[in-house]
Specification:
Elements (H helix, E strand, L loop, with lengths): L2 H18 L1 H10 L8 H9 L1 E6 L4 E3 L7 E7 L2 E5 L2 E6 L4 E2 L15 E4 L3 E7 H5 L3 H30 L1
Antiparallel strand pairs: 1-8, 2-7, 3-6, 3-8, 4-5, 4-7
Length: 165
């Protein structure tokens, strides 16, 4: 077994443990900056409704035009974002992909293709899982999603400003 195979096996084992042991999954989500606005007591139900996924270099997390049924929070690694086959950004640990679906009243499609740059671990959270949350857990998750959208808007504003110079 070469070094790359050993790393991939280790990541696969780690991901499997996170997906099977809800306390471990909760602990990893707690470390992720995306979930900072959510108090631990309300993060536990979110963790229960998430699935840990691994991707290798070149794997597609999303495909432009596909129906949105889940969003991803990157726990480890980076991914490149493509719009109309052009690179438009990078998603890093602590950032999310597809959060806009939680604010749409109808089915929407993905606006970009996102491809893992290398080994990547994410929490996949389906809209149905968030819809099952109630009370404060839902309110705190909405807050985390709004903060993520706000950060992306700030980044887009900076890019626009640079282009106008």
């Amino acid at each position: 077994m070469n070094e790359l195979d050993a790393i991939q096996a280790s990541l696969a084992s780690f991901t499997k443990r996170l997906d099977e042991v809800s306390n471990d999954r909760f602990n990893e989500l707690r470390k992720c900056s995306f979930f900072d606005p959510i108090p631990s007591e309300w993060l536990k139900p979110v963790a229960e409704h998430s699935q840990i996924r691994t991707f290798s270099a070149g794997d597609r997390l999303t495909e432009e035009g596909d129906d949105m049924d889940a969003f991803y929070v990157i726990l480890f690694g980076t991914a490149t974002v493509y719009y109309s086959k052009k690179v438009v950004g990078t998603i890093r640990s602590g950032e999310c992909i597809g959060e806009g679906m939680f604010f749409a009243n109808e089915n929407i499609s993905r606006s970009a293709t996102v491809i893992a740059d290398g080994q990547l671990i994410s929490a996949e959270i389906r809209k149905s899982g968030i819809d099952m949350l109630s009370g404060e857990a839902k309110a705190y998750m909405d807050k985390a999603l709004l903060l993520a959208l706000f950060k992306k808007l700030q980044g887009a504003n900076r890019k626009i400003e640079e282009l106008l110079r």
